[in-house]
Protein 1
Amino acid sequence: MRAMAFSKTGGPEVLHLVDLPTPTPGPDEILLRVAYAGVNYGEIQHRLGDFGEPEGETVTGLEAAGVVAAVGERAPVGERAAADVSGASAASAAASDVSVGARAAADGSVGERAAADGSVGARATADRSVGARAAAGVSVGDRVASYLPDGGGYAEYVVVPAAFAFPLPDALDLRTGGAAALVLTTAYGVLAGAARLAPGDTVLIHAAAGGVGGVAAQLARALGARAVYGTVSTPEKAAYARAAFGYDEVFVRDGFPAAVTAATSGRGVDVVLDPVGGPTRLASLDVLAPFGRVAVYGEAARHPDLHLRVLPLWKNNRTLTGYNIGDLARRAPETLRTHALNALNLAAEGAVRLDITEEHDLTEAAKAHRLLGEGRNRGKTVLRVDASASPSGGAPSGGV
Ligand SMILES: NC(=O)c1ccc[n+]([C@@H]2O[C@H](COP(=O)([O-])OP(=O)(O)OC[C@H]3O[C@@H](n4cnc5c(N)ncnc54)[C@H](OP(=O)(O)O)[C@@H]3O)[C@@H](O)[C@H]2O)c1
């Protein structure tokens, strides 16, 4: 199969086309024939070596959509039960039960759904039959959007834990699905899980014009936020983000504390979403209203880690919280899946729109990386992996 890989860390030029063996799905895994793959900042960091050195030809790519080409056997029940508590393999154990998401959706309002996540996860873990339904629930030929915890999306085929193969609602095409699985799940998880967004809250989102930022703004409104503000690096991006994602106001990041203070009549905001880090993170703590939360989920500025004093947290009624999808995949895969299904449903209902501004062929991955790595991107960038796939239809066949 064709794939874009790197065997040494470095700039976008280290990405090159390779021919690799098509992988085989193991127990509680599926083989996905990739139609579209999203391009994410995490993949830039992967290529740069932030997550360690590559071992041989390494294929990055954290999200993709396509058609299920093969389904692995189900792990014996005993193995699945053991895997539930064993960290990494819990992802495949927890299983892809659409009805978990459906139960959450049926629980009531969107805000209640978020609050219900814990109990939904607990029910899924406690119910061994969930695993059985899950493995049976994904069939060859199904359209799915997948979060790929081990990468691999920049390839014609990728093996995915069944737990992270999310059925794509009919209203969403494969191109949108390819842009959605990581980004929507992360935005939903940061807001509902890490920041505990409550109806009526005010929210500030850094990197407001990007992939996660753009959908987070819309999800925040869908979850009941009263006002949504953003920060970006340039006035051009601010105008784009306001028009594309419906922010109340978008500020240039330099000097944002004064702008937020003015916009909120001195109160500050209840929630800050911070994927940037460094001085932006420090200043974000200063714009919190009482009991406000700064949710940390990235290091786009690649600034050295902060050493924070704790005293100002209790002196000023502040909370610092974090979100990491990889940790969630290992330790709470049912929660991750519930977040993904809830967010995909909101996108299917039209509450959230993914603004895909760039589409490149798989072989042009370096071009997409250059754009994102230099912070020149807006909205979402995707790679067309299967040249014959139509955005709305499937790949030509589900077979390998
Ligand atoms: N924790 C998790 O589980 C998780 C999961 C997914 C994504 N993330 C994080 O979420 C963030 C957004 O991801 P994304 O894929 O949607 O990317 P993105 O927001 O589309 O692009 C990254 C943005 O970061 C901003 N940025 C700030 N400092 C930068 C710098 N020094 N160089 C380049 N860009 C800089 C730029 O926006 P401005 O021009 O506005 O500065 C840039 O557009 C990333 O930090 C990513 O690592 C975390």
Note: The mean pLDDT is 86.
Protein 2
Amino acid sequence: MVEETQRDDMTWYRCEKCGLMFDSEDDATKHEETCDAEDPSYLR
Ligand SMILES: [Zn+2]
């Protein structure tokens, strides 16, 4: 799911699967629906 992040007084939306950041929640949600990075092995 999309993770909200505060940075530089802006809200960013991060794809939890691949780590890509978006400034629009809509963009992030759409990206995540098609994101094929199912295994975020580099996260935690
Ligand atoms: Zn992604």
Note: Helices lie at 25-34.
